[in-house]
Design goal:
Blueprint: H1 4-14, H2 27-46, H3 48-55, H4 61-86, H5 92-100, H6 118-138, H7 144-172, H8 176-195, H9 207-212, H10 220-238, E1 248-250, E2 255-257, H11 263-273, H12 277-290, H13 292-310
Antiparallel strand pairs: 1-2
Helix pairs in contact: 2-4, 3-4, 4-7, 6-7, 6-8, 6-10
The structure holds Phenylacetyl coenzyme A.
Phenylacetyl coenzyme A binds next to helix 2, helix 6 and helix 9.
């Protein structure tokens, strides 16, 4: 039972209007956006860690420069998304505090380790590939600052996805040992990538309301299916095999039948018990603590500059 104000708000959403920061919105809409945009921002920042792990060990200067640029883009995406969240009345410090205390999540995928150089290929190809699949529809999301952030972010994500696929092509066409590394990376990242879309629709608590508000444009299962349909031919082109014996083209649904990820593993990872959860959070908290002197210096400088302007 919606109030007249809520009915009018829903009618704006249904007409495809964008909601802007200073406008009235239901508290639930605001809270859901802060949760989703905040978690997305945290994912970008924590997502720098698995790839940052390989910058010093990239095989060539060119690969190193490309990887460095990609990881820098992720910092930019994070800052862009924190700014979008701030327009909803939450401060950046509050969001960081919630990440560091474990009160807010970040994507499950970044709790898996990156063991070999081929993982840089698999992350770009599969993780950025899944990210794009989810984020392209979000360019049409109802909240103005979020949708505009997505437009810019998607352009960079598509470069990221291609750089990953380029690494996979080199590895898959390389020596037998390199091809084995590429296959191993695909084996380890396939199911975690499928988990990025969230739990199956029947277990997704937020989908229905978020889709009515156009905070989400598709269900988790819809996007997961789309990802599998697009990615399987890419694996075939590489001459690699998707680690799913049940994988089969289904003519009727014009899509692949595929095995679901192990959902108990997913729920463990989002509870904090994945292979790298502790290490990732520790790295973020340490970076925050060790950066205190720098933040203080910036604030002191800003105060001095403001005082000088007043004088
Ligand atoms: N990981 O009711 P739903 C990137 C949680 S891309 C962790 O279905 P919702 C780029 C969910 O929060 C990755 N938690 O939830 C990059 C909820 O718990 P809560 C980031 C997950 O929100 C690439 C509970 O499960 N992208 O970073 C996950 O409607 C390479 C119930 O689930 C985005 O964030 C998960 N995978 O749908 C960077 C996109 N899935 O909050 C570096 C925007 C679900 O009540 C390198 N987000 N949960 O405690 C979304 O589209 C949605 O939030 C979903 C989840 C689809 C992720």
């Amino acid at each position: 039972d919606m109030s007249p104000q809520e009915l009018a708000f829903q009618a704006r959403i249904d007409r495809g209007e964008k909601i802007e920061p200073k406008e009235w919105m239901p508290e639930g809409y605001r809270k859901t956006l802060i949760r989703q945009i905040g978690q997305h921002a945290h994912s970008e920042i924590v997502g720098q860690l698995p790839e940052g792990n390989w910058i010093t060990r990239a095989p060539t200067l060119e690969r190193k420069a490309i990887l460095l640029a990609k990881v820098q883009d992720e910092a930019g995406h994070g800052l862009y998304l924190y700014s979008a969240a701030e327009t909803l009345g939450v401060s950046r410090d509050e969001l960081f505090e919630k990440l560091h205390s474990g009160a807010m999540k970040y994507s499950s995928i970044f709790n898996y380790p990156t063991l070999t150089w081929a993982d840089m290929g698999a992350v770009g190809w599969l993780v950025d590939g899944a990210a794009i699949m989810n984020q392209v529809p979000l360019q049409r999301t109802s909240y103005g600052p979020y949708s505009r952030a997505m437009i810019r972010i998607c352009k960079e994500e598509s470069f990221h996805q291609r750089q990953g696929y380029s690494i996979m092509m080199t590895m898959a066409k390389g020596t037998p040992a390199q091809k084995d590394m590429a296959q191993d990376a695909l084996n380890r990242f396939w199911y975690p990538a499928l988990m990025m879309f969230g739990p199956s629709d029947k277990d997704s608590v937020h989908s229905e309301q978020s889709m009515a508000w156009k905070i989400k444009m598709n269900t988790n299962d819809e996007l997961r299916q789309k990802f599998v349909n697009e990615t399987v031919p890419q694996a075939e082109y590489l001459g690699l095999s998707v680690p799913d014996e049940t994988l089969a083209w289904n003519e009727e649904k014009q899509g692949y039948d595929f095995a679901e990820p192990d959902w108990s593993e997913f729920f463990e990872v989002i509870k904090g018990n994945g292979p790298c959860n502790r290490e990732r959070l520790e790295a973020r908290v340490t970076a925050w603590d060790e950066g205190a002197w720098f933040r203080e210096g910036l604030s002191a400088h800003a105060e001095k500059a403001a005082a000088a302007r007043m004088a």
